[in-house]
Write a structure and sequence with these properties.
The chain is of the alpha+beta class. The protein folds into 2 domains: 3-177 and 335-421, 3-Layer(aba) Sandwich (Aminopeptidase), CATH 3.40.630; 179-231 and 270-332, 2-Layer Sandwich (Alpha-Beta Plaits). Helix content is 30%, strand content 21%. It contains 12 helices and 19 strands. The strands form 6 sheets. The protein has a 6-stranded mixed β-sheet, covered by helices on one side. It has a 4-stranded antiparallel β-sheet with strand order 12-14-10-15. Helix 3 crosses helix 12. It is globular, with a radius of gyration of 24 Å. Bound molecules: zinc ion. Zinc ion binds next to loops.
């Protein structure tokens, strides 16, 4: 098999789901899998881009479900790309193409590894493949799909879409996600007033400012009663694999990093963040006015086992004296697979073998995703991420997306090693 050549054929296909493209990529995958002896089919269901479903049953006791997505983000602005995003180019040991890091590269590396293992007759776990074509537009049909296909997707473990290198270049494993509660708080009065009435009139902006000031301490502790009641703080075992020096995070993410135990805080702390705030006159020059309307958008990133519905209740109680309108924009539950689970231990062991170093293991990603939903519908508790080909400089979703050629081959090896030890 010509690993890179086959990957490049796949990367050349434009699968930008936001522009309604993707079906051609799905067909490519089904053909590719069938050509290599894997049962595969397109499942249309309610999604615009079909799901690709595949299966290899070697009559093993355990089944591993591999989830990836074949769609990509729009490439614009095109003039910022140094190469054609749909004509994969190798430069300085890197492959430049849209989807190289997210998620076509990982998808192909895993698939090619499995094809090799089948050829060698060494596969000892059943495998199911689920490739989605709508991940980059927020998986709007995934829940319905899981509802109708949960029996077919039944598995013991799920390998999530891919995680390659940590900021310090060690292999990175992720065992969960943070949850989310996204709300908007609005405060209004009947009409704008001349600011000379300030001694006697209410100003909704001040009310909102006092409320916000009371929600959080300066160093980030959330002051809503019961907010931390359900937090599962990290164990010593979990902290052991989070030893990443602050300087790597500064290089990989931003110079704004202010904490020393940055990696531990990043994954373990729930937060209250102001996304946007608006009130009154913000135009040119001055206008003396008491504005009648002020609002703020807040997101709370939640950690296991905080429940967004319960947190919402605590928040509602907390803001009730302020007489604000509260609108909920989103709720996602957090999720975490145990570091002592079979899938986590197999990922750690295989990463050590392939990369000759300890992996970084995030008990949950600092970001949010639908893992809890998958666990619920498939009735399993072992979902983990790893075996990816990307790194922190991969520019996913941005221009000049890239991966190292060497990391692509490492990804193939990692998949093979994982299949040996799971
Ligand atoms: Zn993405």
């Amino acid at each position: 098999m010509d690993y890179l050549q086959d990957l490049f054929e796949f990367l050349k296909i434009d699968t930008t789901s936001a522009k309604g493209k993707g079906e051609e990529g799905a067909k490519f995958l089904v053909d590719y899998m069938r050509d290599h002896g894997i049962q595969a089919e397109l499942i249309k269901h309610k999604a615009k881009n079909p799901y690709v479903y595949g299966e290899i049953n070697v009559k093993a006791d355990k089944t591993l479900l591999i989830y990836n997505h074949y769609d990509v983000q729009p490439v614009e602005p095109l003039d910022k790309w140094q190469t054609d995003p749909f004509n994969p180019t190798v430069k300085d040991g890197k492959i430049f193409a849209r989807g190289a890091g997210d998620d076509k590269g990982t998808l192909m590396a895993r698939l090619q590894a499995i094809i090799d293992i089948i050829k060698e007759g060494k596969l000892k776990v059943n495998i199911k493949f689920l490739y989605e074509g709508e991940e980059e537009i927020g998986s709007p049909n995934m829940e319905d799909f899981l509802k109708d296909y949960s029996e077919r997707l039944k598995a013991d473990y799920v390998l999530w879409e891919g995680s390659g290198r940590a900021p310090n270049n060690a292999p990175q494993i992720v065992l969960g996600v943070k949850g989310l509660l996204y709300v908007e708080l609005r405060k209004r009065t009947a009409k704008d007033l001349h600011s000379m009435y300030a001694p006697i009139a209410k100003n909704p902006t001040w009310d909102l400012v006092y409320l916000l000031r009371s929600l959080r301490t300066e160093d980030g502790k959330v002051l809503i009663p019961h907010f931390y009641d359900k937090v599962k703080w990290l164990t010593e075992e979990e902290k052991k694999y989070l030893n990443v020096d602050k300087k790597y995070l500064e290089d990989a993410i931003s110079q704004q990093i202010k904490e020393d135990n940055a990696m531990i805080k990043l994954v373990s702390e729930p937060t209250c963040n102001i996304n946007g705030i608006y009130a009154g006159y913000t135009g040119e020059g001055s206008k003396t006015v008491i504005p009648s309307y002020a609002f703020v958008k807040l997101d709370f990133r939640l950690v296991p086992d905080q429940d967004p519905d319960e947190i919402l209740k605590h928040l509602e109680e907390y803001v009730s004296p302020y007489d604000v309108e509260l609108i909920v924009h989103g709720k996602v539950k957090p999720y975490r697979t145990s570091i002592n689970s079979e899938i986590a231990q197999a990922l750690i062991k295989s990463a050590k073998t392939v990369y000759s170093q300890d992996p970084v293991v995030l008990p949950n990603s600092p970001g949010t995703g639908p893992m809890e939903m998958i666990a619920r519908y498939l009735k399993l508790n072992q979902i983990a991420d790893g075996v990816g080909v990307d790194y922190y400089g991969s520019n996913i979703h941005s221009f000049n997306e890239n991966i190292f050629v060497e990391d692509y081959y490492k990804g193939i090896q990692w998949m093979k090693e994982l299949l040996k030890v799971i």
